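Annotated sample (chain length 217).
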Amino acid sequence: MSTHFDKTFRADPRFARKRVAGLTWFGIALILAGFVCIVFTAQNFIPLAEWAREGGEDSALVRNRMAGITPLVMIAIELVGIAWGVYLLIVGARPWHVAATGTRLCKRYYGFHLSDQTFFHEAHRRFATGDPSVFAPFPHQVDGGQTVVMIWTADADQTAFVGISWDQNRRRTHNLPLISHTGPRYQALDAALRNKLYKPLPDEHNPLLRPGTRPAD
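Output written by the structure step:
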């Protein structure tokens, strides 16, 4: 699926798009089903219109409108299904993976936060530590927020990636360097996500606070 960080991923050799068979076949099925339904609707336009008219309310005006609109609405829905199938084939069925291992990236968090440049850079600094005692609790999302936080994990690789982007209108975004965490820092971020970022992570659940597990800075 398209994200604020597609350009960053494309420029980074650590990542590659890989086609997923299940999503590919689902996209093909949507397209085929959409075309079959459109052909059926077109061939049975008048019977469908009559069926809609008979099922309409007592008002003659409503019945006439239902007769004309119902088949068109069906075609519109079928076209949406085809469009979604095409999107799956082109983009959705080719999600980002870790190139070296083939592990699919799982999007764990996608949030819009404060429209403040100081907070934008502060968020990056906090997540770069990998320590939940520094980045959590994280502020709640806000409507129209321009600081975008995205977190992906490659769980089989024990690796997490954090992206911080400044979103002015989606067509004009500024991405700070992608943050990556492995080992205990991955485990700590995973624990914070499970606990919800807007809540503090209890010390006993923070892997970085266990004796002998805190990595060197």
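Annotation: Residues 60-92 form the longest helix (33 residues).
Annotation: Residues 19-92 form one domain.
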